[in-house]
Design a protein that fits this description.
Four copies of one chain form a homotetramer. The first copy, chain A, contains five helices and 13 strands. Chain A is an alpha+beta fold. In chain A, a hairpin with a 4-residue loop joins strand 7 and strand 8.
Amino acid sequence: MSAAFPTGRPGARFGAARPGPVVLGQNQYGKAENRVVKITREGATHHIKDLNVSVALSGDMEEVHLSGGNAHVLPTDTIKNTVFAFAKKHGIESAEQFGIHLARHFVTSQEPIKTARIRIEEYTWERIETSDGNSRFVGADEVKHSFVRSGQEVRTTQIAYDGTSWQVVSGLKDLTVLNSTNSEFWGYIKDKYTTLQEAYDRILATEVHARWRYHWSSDEDRMPQWDRCYAQTRKHLLQAFAETYSLSLQQTLYQMGSRVIDSRQDVDEIRLSLPNMHHSLVDLEPFGLANDSADGAVYYAADRPYGLIEATILRDGATQAIPVDLTNL
Amino acid sequence: MSAAFPTGRPGARFGAARPGPVVLGQNQYGKAENRVVKITREGATHHIKDLNVSVALSGDMEEVHLSGGNAHVLPTDTIKNTVFAFAKKHGIESAEQFGIHLARHFVTSQEPIKTARIRIEEYTWERIETSDGNSRFVGADEVKHSFVRSGQEVRTTQIAYDGTSWQVVSGLKDLTVLNSTNSEFWGYIKDKYTTLQEAYDRILATEVHARWRYHWSSDEDRMPQWDRCYAQTRKHLLQAFAETYSLSLQQTLYQMGSRVIDSRQDVDEIRLSLPNMHHSLVDLEPFGLANDSADGAVYYAADRPYGLIEATILRDGATQAIPVDLTNL
Amino acid sequence: MSAAFPTGRPGARFGAARPGPVVLGQNQYGKAENRVVKITREGATHHIKDLNVSVALSGDMEEVHLSGGNAHVLPTDTIKNTVFAFAKKHGIESAEQFGIHLARHFVTSQEPIKTARIRIEEYTWERIETSDGNSRFVGADEVKHSFVRSGQEVRTTQIAYDGTSWQVVSGLKDLTVLNSTNSEFWGYIKDKYTTLQEAYDRILATEVHARWRYHWSSDEDRMPQWDRCYAQTRKHLLQAFAETYSLSLQQTLYQMGSRVIDSRQDVDEIRLSLPNMHHSLVDLEPFGLANDSADGAVYYAADRPYGLIEATILRDGATQAIPVDLTNL
Amino acid sequence: MSAAFPTGRPGARFGAARPGPVVLGQNQYGKAENRVVKITREGATHHIKDLNVSVALSGDMEEVHLSGGNAHVLPTDTIKNTVFAFAKKHGIESAEQFGIHLARHFVTSQEPIKTARIRIEEYTWERIETSDGNSRFVGADEVKHSFVRSGQEVRTTQIAYDGTSWQVVSGLKDLTVLNSTNSEFWGYIKDKYTTLQEAYDRILATEVHARWRYHWSSDEDRMPQWDRCYAQTRKHLLQAFAETYSLSLQQTLYQMGSRVIDSRQDVDEIRLSLPNMHHSLVDLEPFGLANDSADGAVYYAADRPYGLIEATILRDGATQAIPVDLTNL
């Protein structure tokens, strides 16, 4: 038992002794979902950063698992305090930069902590437009401290640090897109369980869930411009989706991913998880109505089940490092 | 037992006889959450309407409750079919107009059905911008059939019809807004359970849930321009929120509601339900850090509990008709 | 402007003056979703009450809406404090009793507050069974402080008080039930949009959402035994669902409601909202497989759309008081 | 281009040619969330299996990504059909057994498909008790076809098959448990961001998310009794939680995991993800009320942030194979 282990408190009893041939594997702990909002004021013009920060730490943690001795444990409450204090001390330049500050702190300031993984979700706000020239209301001059939440995709990032090298995997989720034409699906395998009809003009809709890994991994190298990279990658994903004439969602996915790898030299790998949000042509023949896609059709948007297409696209020579599962289903 | 009641099918047994002094009160039935997507094509330019339609019908329905006789029941499956068929037949000019078509059909086409209530949620889509002049990708000319879901507020409407007069209550929900200054809270009641400190510069954030009732109620009168009314009402709500120097969320609510009544002659009544999404200044003093709102502060965004402020604002002389509860909590 | 209204603070500006013909209608405010957990210890045996308490107060509140003057406002933060303090001071005998304590306090202790509405959700916990006679683990004697959350229905109540009389509407939600036979549906209206086939042996499944109003309304009268009433009403609902041979969900609903009114003299009225969770027989004929319900069939459980059947059942002579909408769709 | 690739259909255009140095990495596709309900009848006694089945297939899929050629693609619609047909053909003995049937089918019946991963969620139903001896209602004899959904944990399994060997990882999620005493937390690291007070008698609550890997991997070996294994593992997790005197959630986690490894010879590895659902003692001193845990205290149940404790426990010599992430936060 480690000398640092606190003993002798009256009332402290310990759990069962560790039974036979059992070992502790990978473990991590931290504080999840710290909801940090940082306002920056430039005179009357305010800026907002709205993050959900989750921290997971690993290291020399056998003791606390085996006997409950907490001498190596930085409490998750302290982790939370650190997140909020750093938001004030260092500001939030970008989600990635903020995560790097935090990860470096945890790994370098506490000896038992060997690695840190910071996950951040960012919610985007737009300014509310005011100042109609002809408004007759009091206060209708331009307002620079009022925001409406964008509600489109959630931006994400994950920073991993082991004291030596960095891994930054950024991404987005819940970005719902739809092409109302230029999508076909035919020429597939037919077996005894096939009933699907081939389609030559269908709706293709999905909720983009993407994660991309940056090449940057060392303090020696120049960091990417995180916000610009994000904006560009998002634009490439949207445009590749829109501009691809699709014969399968796999093909569209590949076009989206390869355009990012091709266009962003700072990105080595991207994983996309694309649910096929089925929109079925409704059969209106029983009611004497044609319902052809060419004429502008009516579709039924289904919830479940849905196709789920997932793939990693990477730069030749890069090692695949983003985990396969972006979803649990 | 009504003559229309189907009897004699082998295997049909009936439930318990109606016990003593029990009566049937208000009742309604229908098909909820029909997810209708309608694409309209103008050459290569497509338009999309994406609705979630719920229908509730009432009328002469004693029989089906008391004995299970379905002679007066239009099946909810038929209701669903009707929704999809009408989307093709009549198109979807606006959510309100579509609901009016449906309500009129159900009440006028089936004798036992006396009233119809149609509730619609509408999801908004924006076009994906393509055609960078300098794109080197195939197909990068302007695309007019690709959409990204807005993700901001959900537009709602409720159409009620009894064969004679109409009630249209439109609205929106989940529109999240935030003022990072120009909000105070002080001068309130202090009692033995008071610990709150007065605030002279706080964040005010809420998720706007609004429903407004149109004056229009008769086929004799000219209908409002539903889409334009919606856009204007939304704009007034946002701008009143942004432009009000707030001493309480109640005051902000009243400014939002009264600006709508004052600006939109076609609206007689509006109900607002505004959760006070608390953003608390984090106490960073233990870490030697000041955290004053004037310098750009760090806030903790809390989930629960939250203040909930609700009120109806109406035109003098109008009768309050929107139900009090827009939420169940 | 009320003399109690605080003026003259530097920096305080007020919103726009109230424009023309606008009036304030029904309004209420409070703190929603206070998550209170109360442990009671009887030696080593512990008991748990786990509530989500929402308070809405109304009264003399014109001032705060029109000018932001808070002199009549008991802050929602104080409301929260009161909820927690009362849980300690009075304990939580039942959700209903706790709500009655709170409502009486708010209405009687603050002059501007005229009515209080307390809504409570209760989550049920069961004991974890331990003490296998033959366990070889340390501490494996009977444990009386360990619980697992039931996860079945959420129990609800709503207490309304205006200083004179009480209204108690209790209920439950999210209680999912299914009959795998003894359900038919036929003999309904056929029109041009009908495609549904009649069914003589179908699954009937629903998620019970019920609210019942107690007769009790005066401090003069003896209160019901709230916990026993709840348990009995729940049992009647479940058994009536199970024991009814159903020709329509309306009939089943009526049997459920009327059994409660018939069996519980303390209940005057019940409202049921029953989604028809459709389970469709899957067509397996293309694969050479019969799929008849009589042989034990395979069903597809659909999410949307769903039938939604709602009705109030009441004691003859009682006035209908439970609002029509238990859902927003 | 593969000879199997369908060309020449009028109107088919293809996306951009694959740009430079981009390669396709791991990829998989399938139909997610097939909601299958299977009723089995033994005379008047019915049994129910209620599953949510997700299928992911991998194999020789370069073509469909690069050019949209679907010759190697078994459509996700066919996958769905197969799931429903197999539920009828083979029944659903257990989630694991059903997944094994499906995985074997996909891998062995289609040459391009090399591996299959089947994920299943199972929802549990209990019988509704009827037959009060003294009921006066019609039909109140014992009913054997009426169910109420348990609502406690969701049972999960994942079957992976590559044509040669099997990996079965079963588990559960959303099982919420709470100890109202026998939990302490002290002796931890203090740094400049520490404000937490040590606790000697606190509530310990968590929502158990567990996945365990069975030793079984070959058709040569005897399969575990899946349902019995599940029930026993669940019991061990609950009892270890209840019976551990906890000095940290890590210690409790280790006790839960090691008891499973120690008790179930068929399980080689278990991963637990335990959010620390914080219940804070409410400070009631300002109101003159003591709130000590020893006397039965009032707690505030917080939503976010929360501690998150995760670890793998495995049999000595086993290889860690369950992925680290059971959550995305």
